[in-house]
Design goal:
The protein is α+β, with helices and mostly antiparallel strands. It is built from 19 helices and 19 strands. The chain folds into three domains: about 290 residues, Catalase HpII,  Chain A, domain 1, CATH 2.40.180.10; about 70 residues, Catalase, four-helical domain (Hemocyanin, N-terminal domain, Up-down Bundle), CATH 1.20.1370.20; about 160 residues, Class I glutamine amidotransferase (GATase) domain (Rossmann fold). Its cofactor is heme.
Length: about 700
């Protein structure tokens, strides 16, 4: 994938703030060259340090204040720069937002992915909600689409957000557990707040364990408005769809990755961009004309705990986003980026969603503490490309040197500038929504159904997805101490689906409930990961396991075939260095297999070679490596003499044809030694593209 285009205005502006520490001499903050940075100024070689050592004082002072408060939620993140471009069928008739209406514009973006619960030092792979925040640096100002990888949220009203986060975070008496929903306070809150149930179903699904940020959907969650030049409004929901498809880890795998590589998702994003395999996403919109606002019997558009199935309102593809550049400095960009839900441009406006309204206050308020004052927008990563002119002044972190005397409006001493744009000058105009009603602390009855959509989600899942959801509930609720919380949760699940409640109850020591209510039977194929794109191996990590005596030609042929298709291939040997192939050639090993685990790869491949096969079969770690990959439903390929591994690992041998080739549920075998057949390569590549093969070991759950 190519990203050949001239630097954007944003990139040019950011370049002015970059400093390469390799340029010139070491200096203080004041530009004074430093003589020595290894020894403090002393009164004699063994005497006390002198207060006059300004370099020491500055160096320690700066170090003592390096840390800023981390985000309360979404603290652990990874970011990337890129661009967005709307398709030719633009939205100019629906919105005055130029970046959505002009297909000739390539809008710079910065995206930050994150986990919700854990702190900055937590691992990448817990069961958790993922943040998916996108900043568009448009010519009309910054637009921040601050979403998650799930289309709904836990609560309907922002006044409950502190309660939710307090319940979700480590418990106050012992600061345990970190980055985990498996604790008493979270499930106590959920059991008493049934509006959370829809999001909890998503949290218990594989959506909470993304394989990669490159393979993760994003959603704006709330209903927003698009407003056109005539003032006509269209309700809109934002969707990001990755071109690589939506893929996940499995629970056991995710747990092991957190120990082997806690930076797994962060590293994957960084390395993909460095390798030129730029993550791509398609922006899709669900567009609802204003007159259809009340057409949905079980969904209020202002309720962020509900979604509109794509079968009811299709997602219209409108543009493409490519992430093609890693940050130059993590702190300056990924950590200091200050997303704000209230950053909108003309043509995009808010609705009366109570959670959205609270976020409009909370996000900018948070940045006052995190970034030390009201001037966070002057940091390079937060600066808009649109011209900035206003009458604000002073405060912590002020970097702009204002000129002139007039810091107020109206004025004559500054020729009345800057002037108010008004509507004709492109000024932001809020949609004139009519509002009637008495102040009251109540919610609309259209928000009262908390069970139909969790049932919709359950009905939409494939058999293996349902199995994973049941297992997740059993694990997380199984950690809950108070029995009454477990019992109440099973009662809620019974209102979602009776069979779900029975299966969970059986695993957590709670009496299975009597049937209550009927499953409405509706589902949405779009909610399942089982039916997404399965056509690419781009960016997939494949481990080719080798040892001395390996069939070198076969290993080289397979590596070339996979690399040509965009896979990232590593040769794993008994030790770092090289192995000697059967023909005497030296093969460079990427890393020693004992230092990595199968959980770090998407697929495993074992070439033939008699001596290599003998060595591998006798190596318990290799046997475990292959068996574990199979257990996690990953593609496994074996060739020639390496088929003896199937016996050692107790994996089933697929039926073989006359050429010794066979494939079954992602296990691809070619027993005959010699040139790798096209059938093997095609089958193995297809097995990787399909991601996982969960039909291998799905326990029976009645359809």
């Amino acid at each position: 994938m190519s990203s050949e285009h001239p630097p954007t205005a944003k990139q040019t502006r950011l370049a002015a703030h970059r400093r390469d520490p390799r340029d010139g001499y070491l200096t203080t903050d004041q530009g004074i060259r430093v003589e020595d940075t290894d020894n403090s100024l002393r009164a004699g070689t063994r005497g006390p340090i002198l207060l006059a050592d300004f370099h020491l004082r500055e160096k320690l002072m700066r170090f003592d204040h390096e840390r800023i408060p981390e985000r309360v939620v979404y603290a652990r993140g990874a970011g990337a720069h890129g661009w967005f471009q709307v398709y030719d069928g633009s939205l100019a008739e629906s919105t005055t937002a130029e970046f959505l209406g002009d297909p000739s514009l390539r809008t710079p973006v910065f995206v930050r992915f994150s986990t919700l619960q854990g702190g900055r030092g937590s691992a990448d792979t817990p069961r958790d909600v993922r943040g998916f925040a996108t900043r568009f640096y448009t010519g009309q100002g910054n637009f921040d689409l601050v979403g998650t990888n799930m289309p709904v949220f836990f609560i309907q009203d922002g006044i409950k957000f502190p309660d939710l986060v307090h319940a979700l975070k480590p418990e106050p008496h012992n600061e345990i557990p970190t980055a985990s929903p498996g604790h008493d306070t979270f499930w106590d809150f959920v059991s008493l707040q049934p509006e959370t149930l829809h999001h909890v179903m998503w949290l218990m699904s594989d959506r909470a364990l993304p394989r990669s940020y490159r393979m993760m959907q994003g959603f704006g969650v709330h209903t927003f408005r698009l407003v056109n030049g005539a003032g006509r409004t269209t309700f809109v929901k934002f969707h990001w769809k990755p071109t690589l498809g939506v893929h996940s880890l499995v629970w056991d795998e995710a747990q092991k990755i957190s120990g082997q590589d806690p930076d797994f998702n962060r590293r994957d994003l960084w390395e993909a961009i460095e390798a030129g395999q730029f993550p791509e996403y398609e922006l899709g919109l669900q567009l609802i004309p204003e007159e259809r606002e009340f057409d949905f019997d079980d969904v209020d558009l202002l309720d962020p705990t509900k979604l509109i199935p794509e079968e009811v309102v299709p997602v219209t593809p409108v543009g493409r986003m490519v992430l093609d550049r890693n940050p130059d400095n993590f702190f300056a960009e990924t950590e200091q980026v200050a997303f704000r839900v209230d950053n909108v441009v003309p043509g995009i406006d808010f609705t009366a969603d109570a959670l959205l309204q609270a976020r409009l206050f909370s996000y900018p308020d948070t940045q006052l503490t995190r970034l030390g004052g009201p001037n966070a927008a002057q940091l390079p990563v937060n600066q808009p490309v649109a011209p900035v002119a206003h009458y604000q002044q002073d405060g912590f972190g002020q970097q702009t040197v204002r000129q002139g005397r007039a810091n107020y409006h109206p004025n004559s001493l500054g020729d009345g500038r800057p002037v108010v744009a008004g509507r004709q000058g492109g000024g932001f105009t809020h949609f004139p929504e009519r509002i009637d009603g008495m102040p009251e602390r109540r919610r609309s009855q259209t928000f009262a159904d908390h069970y139909s959509q969790p049932t919709l989600f359950w009905n939409s899942m494939s058999l293996w997805e349902k199995e994973h959801i049941v297992a997740a509930f059993r694990v997380e609720l199984g950690r809950v101490g108070p029995r009454h919380i477990r019992e109440l949760m099973v009662q809620h699940l019974n209102r979602i689906d009776h069979e779900l409640a029975q299966l969970v109850a059986a695993g957590i020591g709670v009496t299975a409930p009597a049937r209550r209510g009927d499953n409405h039977g509706r589902g949405s194929r779009a909610l399942s990961q089982a039916y997404g794109p399965r056509h690419s191996v781009l960016g997939r990590k494949v481990a080719i396991v080798v040892a001395d005596g390996v069939d070198g030609d076969t290993a080289a042929t397979l590596r070339a075939a996979l690399t040509e298709r965009g896979a990232l291939v590593e040769l794993l040997g008994p030790v770092d260095g090289v192995v000697t192939a059967a023909d005497g050639a030296a093969l460079a090993v990427t890393r020693a297999i004992g230092g990595v685990g199968s959980v770090l790869y998407d697929a495993v491949l074992v070439p033939g070679g008699n001596d290599a096969a003998i060595a591998l079969v006798s190596d318990g770690y290799v046997v475990h490596f292959v068996a574990e990959a199979y257990k996690h439903a990953k593609p496994v390929g074996v060739l020639g003499e390496a088929t003896t591994l199937l016996t050692q690992t107790q994996l089933p041998m697929p039926a073989l044809d006359d050429d010794g080739f066979g494939e079954e549920l992602g296990l691809v075998v070619q027993s005959a030694r010699g040139t790798v057949g096209d059938a093997f390569v095609t089958a193995y590549v297809d097995a990787i593209a399909r991601h996982r093969h969960f039909d291998r070991a799905v326990d029976a759950i009645a359809a």
